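During the practical work, I worked with a single protein chain and the tokens that describe its fold, as given directly below.
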Amino acid sequence: MISIDSLLLAIGTVSCLNFIPQKLKFVTQPFMLFLAGCYILTDIIPAIVTSQKAISERSVYRAKLVIIAALILSVLIIPTLYSTYERHILGVKSYAHDGGVIHTKEAMKMFIEGKNPYTSDYRGTELEEQYLYENHPFGLRTIIYHYPYLPLSFLLPIPFYYISINTLGWFDMRFIYLVAFLLSLWLALSFSKRYTNRLLIIIAIGLNPVFSQYIIPGRNDILVFFFLLCIIYFLRRNKIQTASLFFGLAFTVKPTSWLLLPFFIHYIYLRNGGTSFSQKVLGTFKKILPFVILVLVIIGPYLLWDLHSLKEDVFDFNLGKIQGSSYPLGGSPGFGFAQLFVFAGYGEQDYIPFWIFQLIFCTPLFLIFIALQRRQNTVKAMVIFYTVLLFFFLYFSRFFHNNYIGFTLTLLCIGALMDEENTKV
């Protein structure tokens, strides 16, 4: 009588209650619980209606979608908009993610001024003001000297920045993240023809306390997530070059998408119709050419401008190779393998060669997945293999934050729930 999507929606709703800003709790929390109860009723009411098929499955599905939309509005969209309003209109120093909101905006402003965001440091900016206000020890000692994301993260917002400044008088990165989130929901609805699976996917994205709730402070994982969903969407429609274009966008925002590359290339290679190895390789290269061009156009100038600073900010900083100003060991805080070293007494700036553990564990896993992909070359399998490999790669890294757990868990849900397409070889 009670469906699995009703149970998961109820759990997700209750789990998200504490993420609501304090000033909105008294209004939104009762409304959220009421909506969760109504969702459960959509399972019960059709079961007690006496006439056969009096309420169609499609009608129930639509009613559930409306309730989910209202919940997402209450849980995520209104709190995010309120948080931006509070920060920019009321002048309250409400919490905004240092990297995804403040740091990225400052990097974008530096680029507009003709400065290299990787060569510059961020003293005297809004980022330093926020760290001083929060008494943030990690940020003032380490993050303020580096920009750890790839160039598209600060290039993409530029047109939106000018539009927002000229209309509202202020700009917040969370506008872009909200749009990416809503578009992700729209794309995800196409991944299954089964109503229950569609609902479960939307719940996994929109009411996931370890994923969607991080949009409120403005973590930037949703941007990579959206581009990954675009890749999935176009691959399932056999529009490989378009998928390749979106992969180029994902690749130049954050390295979390990079482990998809071998599976992506292998997927295309196995689907090529060439008879010889050279024909297959050439055909694969032609199809990933948009990816190659986009990566060269976006990252290439920074390789020429200041390769050392780019490498130092994006890689050495996160790997712990910059003595005194690396990202702190274990995270702030983290949940992965690195916590054992923190427990053992290592300092926050100590360098640990985590690549050894990643190599030992992830290499055989990768080889197994590549072999399995030869037998089941589907988008569904590709997403699952990439996500599981990414989870363990991040787990054995210098820090494994809660948003990484949410990112991989949500992608895994999508991979598990999407329909199997007819692309086996």
Q: What stands out?
A: Residues 277-319 form the longest helix (43 residues). The two ends are 40 Å apart (CA to CA).
